Amino acid sequence: KAGLLYFGAATDTPGFRERAPYPQSYAQYDAILEDPEEFGQTTPTNGQKWLFVEPQPGLFNFTEGDYVANLANRTEKILRCHALVWHSQLAPWVETTQWTPETLTEAIERHIREVAGYYKGRCYAWDVVNEALDEDGTYRKSVFYNVLGEEYLKLAFRVAAEVDPEAKLYYNDYGIERPASVKTAGAKRLVKMLQDAGVRIDGVGMQAHLHADNHPSEEDLIATSKGYAELGVEVAFTELDVRIKLPVDEQKLKWQSDCYEKVVGACVRVKACVGITVWDFYDPFSWVPDVFPGNGASLLWFENFEKHPAYDGMVRKFSEL
Ligand code: G3I
């Protein structure tokens, strides 16, 4: 449909799926994950992050990332790669080293050369920089920003472009799904800043960690997507989930389904929207309850492996469009 290339689900390596509620859930989970009828794309939720791939300076370990990359290959799914430069889940040494602009530049460059170099040719897209903005649309005061200012963004995209010329290079963030938000304006400024510097950026990833009871309208999602597309980049919904304030009831599941359906509607209606990724698909493996206690049931399969109404809602929506 239109520019849509995939509907996918992120996943973790088995070692990270600590909350499997009963032993058989692994087998049931894997059967869904590997079913080509369900998902045509995947992203490692954790395995390619700095903490795991470069735990010590210059010491690289691709075990966790490879699990998902190999699964994508084996099950013929498109692979989105996530994330080269992010302030969170950083290896502790990155935060404790006393950097100069020169030494941090070298460390970022080495990281991207090794990691993007290792996965070269396998990633449809890379989230080159993740979550560089604060809620007010100004730059987040990460270690990268504090030492290098916005130069670190140019550096990251420039090196990634050189190392993996085929991969689409994305800026990825949350809270940039609504057209009038200051953070959305910040994301657009960031794209323009890179373009003005002559640096390649191909896409904006709207993470879309949304709320069932207060979600953007389809028109808003379309307007935001078009706003990015007007800058000449593609867009994707990269980490979609729709949290519910527990307990779950029919009304909230209906709101949740409406929200998932609006994302599908928006992505199909905007040519520049290439795909939708849900941030895992099985409720017990979602990050939401850990970070927002009292919230959950944000994905497409309940703990007992029954499907949420949003699953059929999206299928219906796809078939109508
Ligand atoms: O690896 C350790 C393990 O050794 C230890 O036993 C265990 C104890 O709790 O923790 C494990 O680390 C956890 C890690 O996931 C791997 O499972 C961390 O505690 C946990 O905080 C971490 O959460 C991840 C979170 O990013 C960290 O910020 C989530 O799984 C992951 O879904 C989430 O993903 C992010 C995106 O990358 C960026 N956008 C927001 C999104 C949601 O926070």
Short recap of the structure:
This protein has 321 residues and is an alpha/beta fold. 41% of the residues lie in helices and 17% in strands.
Question: How would you characterize this protein structure?
Answer:
There is one protein chain. With 321 residues, the protein is of the alpha/beta class. It has a single domain, classed as Glycosidases (TIM Barrel), CATH 3.20.20.80. It contains twelve helices and ten strands. It has helices spanning 25-34, 50-53, 63-74, 92-96, 101-118, 143-148, 151-163, 182-196, 218-229, 250-269, 288-291, 309-320, and strands spanning 6-9, 41-42, 78-86, 125-130, 168-173, 203-206, 209-211, 234-245, 273-278, 295-296. Strands 1, 2, 3, 4, 5, 6, 7, 8, 9 and 10 form a ten-stranded mixed sheet that branches. The mean pLDDT is 96. The chain binds ligand G3I. Residues 16, 45-46, 88-89, 130, 174, 207, 239, 287 line the site of ligand G3I. Ligand G3I binds next to loops.
Q: How would a crystallographer describe the biggest sheet?
A: 10 strands, mixed
- Give the oligomer, counting copies of the same chain as homo and different chains as hetero: single chain
Q: Secondary-structure element sequence? A: EHEHHEHHEHHEHEEHEHEHEH
CATH class: Alpha Beta
The number of helical elements comes to 12
For the record, give the distance between the C-alpha atoms at the N and C termini, rounded to a whole number. Answer: 8 Å
Helix content: 40-55%
Protein structure class: alpha/beta
**CATH superfamily grouping:** Glycosidases
